[in-house]
Amino acid sequence: MTFIESETIELKSSVVADLCKEVIAFANTRGGTLYIGVEDNGTVIGVDSADRVTLQINNMVRDSIKPDITMFVHYETQVIDDKQIIAVTVQEGTDRPYYLGSKGLKPSGVYVRNGTSTDPASDTAIRKMIKETDGDSFETMRSLEQNLSFQAVEAQFAKRKVPYDAAKMQTLGMVSSDDIYSNVALLLSEQCPSTIKAATFAVLIRAYSKIDVSLPVRCFSRWRICMPISICTIKPRPHLRDYTELIPKIIQRTL
């Protein structure tokens, strides 16, 4: 059997520290196979203990890569010229982009396959993968910044004596089941790059020319978002009463 590196094949003589980068690159691109115990020129040198090496790689992949990618990685011991090598087959993942947990969701932690090389992904490529995986909804997309703090949010919940914990964060859509922050979490965090300044005000919405809807809107001064929290007061004309169902009684929108 001849081993030649390509877009879907990577050769490693032994387990190295940056092996997870190769796994990430395959999962973020079109998948591929990583052969351990084969030098770059295709020479088979084998590994000392296939079981030990497989366990070592499995632990590295499980502990270092986010989101969880273990279900897309498969291990096989092959015997070539009486020498054991490990074939690590990586499928293209469904939760791209995958990244090094120690680096975060940024170019230094996200890798893609370009020909026979593994390169850091650009910000544009990362956003494209997030959009393809999470859809077009900005709120549900994974935040590019994962090192977030929520002191102001915690203070507001404590002030109103409302429990604030991991379950509440998931209910609000701030964090996924894999403990990955969404853009909702980014907007509520101290790391939010944008600040919206607002004051208490009332706006009059005129609908169907005959119906007045008074919508009081209040803003938490310490939060970075403006949240309408009041119920509309609808004042319909008697002969237009049936149209009032077209106007929602509660308007909730995060800016």
Mind explaining what this structure looks like?
The protein is an alpha+beta fold and 255 residues long. Helices cover 23% and strands 21% of the residues. The chain has helices at 19-28, 50-64, 123-134, 151-159, 166-171, 183-188; strands spanning 9-12, 32-36, 65-66, 73-80, 83-90, 99-100, 111-114, 117-120, 201-207, 211-217, 233-235. It is elongated, with a radius of gyration of 26 Å. The N and C termini lie far apart (59 Å).
Question: How many strands, which pairing sense, and closed or not: the largest β-sheet?
Answer: 4 strands, mixed
Percent helix, as a range, is 10-25%
Poorly predicted regions are: 205-255
Summarize model confidence as the mean pLDDT: 80
Q: Report the strand count.
A: 11
Terminal Cα separation, in Å? 59 Å
Secondary-structure content class: alpha+beta
User: Percent of residues in beta strands?
Assistant: 15-25%
Q: Helix tally?
A: 6
The succession of helices and strands, N to C, reads: EHEHEEEEEEHHHHEEE
- Widest sheet: strand ordering: 1-2-5-4
**Shape designation:** elongated
Q: Indicate the radius of gyration in whole angstroms.
A: 26 Å
Please outline the helices and strands:
Layout: E1 9-12, H1 19-28, E2 32-36, H2 50-64, E3 65-66, E4 73-80, E5 83-90, E6 99-100, E7 111-114, E8 117-120, H3 123-134, H4 151-159, H5 166-171, H6 183-188, E9 201-207, E10 211-217, E11 233-235
Task: Give a short overview.
The chain is of the alpha+beta class and 255 residues long. The protein has helices spanning 19-28, 50-64, 123-134, 151-159, 166-171, 183-188, and strands at residues 9-12, 32-36, 65-66, 73-80, 83-90, 99-100, 111-114, 117-120, 201-207, 211-217, 233-235. A hairpin with a 2-residue loop joins strand 7 and strand 8 (117-120).
